[in-house]
Design goal:
The protein is an alpha+beta fold. Helix content is about 10%, strand content about 30%. It folds into 2 domains: about 120 residues, Immunoglobulin-like; about 325 residues, no CATH class.
């Protein structure tokens, strides 16, 4: 995603600052963050909580086809001030023993001043995005993942939760991996930016960078509720079970995926460490399958620092002014494509397509081909039909492979950009080139203006499918053909 976007923090203060004589008046009554973004069932979760109340309460909910209240804890209240985005906030800790029978999944803790009465039931939402409206907020929430006590025992699907990307856009503390919130600051970038994972936010519970989504304004784009929750709600509502992990788990535990047949990446999974990429590549080479129901995937490389509690990214060549769009220039040290093109793994790259960040997009969908492929079963799609245009399927950001047309007019990957030679393009969406259309593009090897999103798959050890658009999960409740293709991909790859 471009660095030249303003910061927004709906439903909560953008940045909390400590006062000299005590807590500021506008901070939440209770706020917090997890000591680690994941915990194994049966392990200990450390909550870091700051509050003016004498005691605090945390109610735990698991997000799936419905929202389930799983338990409660409470503890003594202590106030601690906010800190900068690049330093551990060091708030008081409270340990909670996660029950052994908690299923793997994404959990949200709702923080509040302590009260004896039980937390009001959150309504089940079997046909709506779980957590999107019921639990999402910019403060007094924290997200964590419960990993399986016995990995792979009940499912062969592993869902990767993109915590690195969540925190890249989290502006708690005054900045993110896009620099300070104050975009008017004329000081040049120092080259490398860093953020701690130990602060409020990171998927939920913190203000985020980016513009509102005109096609789904209920939640900010760079949050769990916007991309992942709708997909997980559909997945579990369809009777498909998965174990869950974070990208930090994939970074720290090379063999975590070994007991699974399919790895899922959804929505906006932009920031990858080299170790995550190596481990996912090894999973593919060993016969593991990957399905990417998103885009802008593996665009930036991050280094994990401070014992797994922070990430940094060398984005800016020295002297680049604030507000510059580094995607438009070469020489960004941690652009994957400049040193090791990400499409050697994903099959596609953001540099061959683009992004549309502000205002509504014109209708754009995929023109499909090779519709006799199993992926198109039960869709009634035929070659030349357009998938998803009425709901603006292609966008907010999308990826593509360099391609040419053969003698029959079919789109065929050229492989000149690093895309595997057998990448089969199943749909294309040419992006409008007129500036008034609102599409932004990145620098790349081929300066020719043609840009297109391409969805498809290839096999190299295992099979890798990419939907090539961040908005794929947004259409799951809206388009039965998108649901059918999603189900077909998962069935085929498991």
């Amino acid at each position: 995603m471009s660095d030249a976007q303003p910061d927004v923090g709906p439903a909560g203060p953008a940045v909390d600052r400590p006062a000299a004589d005590g807590p500021p008046a506008d901070v939440p009554a209770v706020d917090g963050y997890p000591g680690s973004p994941s915990v194994r069932a049966g392990g200990t979760l450390r909550l870091h909580v700051s509050t003016r109340a004498e005691r605090f309460r945390a109610d735990f909910f698991r997000c799936g086809a419905t929202i389930r209240h799983m338990g409660t804890t409470h503890g003594p209240g202590r106030y601690a001030p906010p800190r900068r985005q690049d330093e551990d906030w060091g708030w008081p800790g409270h340990d909670f023993a996660v029950p052994e029978d908690w299923p793997s999944g994404v959990y949200v803790a709702v923080l509040s001043p302590y009260a004896e009465e039980p937390c009001p039931e959150v309504p089940d939402v079997p046909e709506a995005p779980a957590c999107a409206e019921d639990l999402d907020a910019r403060h007094s929430r924290l997200l964590f993942v419960v990993t399986a006590r016995e990995p792979g025992r009940t499912t062969n699907i592993l869902y990767k939760v993109p915590v690195f990307t969540y925190h890249a856009y989290n502006i708690s503390g005054g900045g993110s991996l896009y620099g300070p919130v104050d975009a008017a600051d004329p000081a040049p970038h120092t080259g490398t930016l860093a953020v701690t994972l130990r602060r409020p936010g990171g998927g939920i519970g913190g203000p985020v960078k980016g513009r509102p989504d005109p096609h789904d304004p209920r939640t900010p784009r760079q949050t769990f509720a916007h991309w992942d929750a709708p997909f997980i709600a559909w997945l579990e509502g369809a009777g498909l079970t998965a174990d869950y992990c974070t990208d930090l788990d994939l970074h720290e535990s090379p063999g975590i995926s070994d007991r699974y047949q399919l790895l899922l990446s959804v929505g906006h999974d932009e920031y990858w460490s080299a170790r995550v990429r190596d481990n996912v590549t090894a999973f593919r080479d060993g016969g593991g399958n990957i399905a990417i129901f998103g885009a802008n995937t593996c665009w930036w490389r991050v280094a994990v620092t401070d014992g797994g509690t922070a990430i940094r990214c060398a984005k800016y060549p020295p002297g680049v002014p604030r507000g510059a769009d580094v995607d438009q220039m070469r020489g960004a040290p941690d652009h994957w494509w400049e040193t090791e093109p990400e499409n050697t793994l994903t099959g596609v790259s953001y540099r061959n397509a683009g992004g549309h960040w502000e205002g509504p997009r014109a209708p754009l969908g995929f023109t499909v081909q090779d519709t006799d492929h199993k992926i198109f079963a039960d869709t009634e799609l035929h070659d030349g039909d357009v998938l998803g245009a009425e709901h603006r399927l292609v966008g907010y950001e999308c990826d593509g492979a360099a391609y040419a047309r053969d003698a029959f007019g079919r789109a065929v990957a050229t492989g000149k950009d690093g895309t595997p030679a057998d990448f089969a393009i199943l749909g294309t969406a040419d992006l409008p080139q007129e500036p008034s259309a609102g599409w932004h593009t990145a620098a790349r090897e081929d300066p020719a203006p043609a840009r297109a999103a391409t969805f498809g798959l290839y096999t190299q050890g295992g099979t890798v499918f990419t939907a090539a658009t961040t908005d794929w999960p947004r259409l799951l409740p809206l388009d039965p053909r998108v649901r059918a293709i999603t189900n077909n991909v998962i069935t085929l790859l498991t």
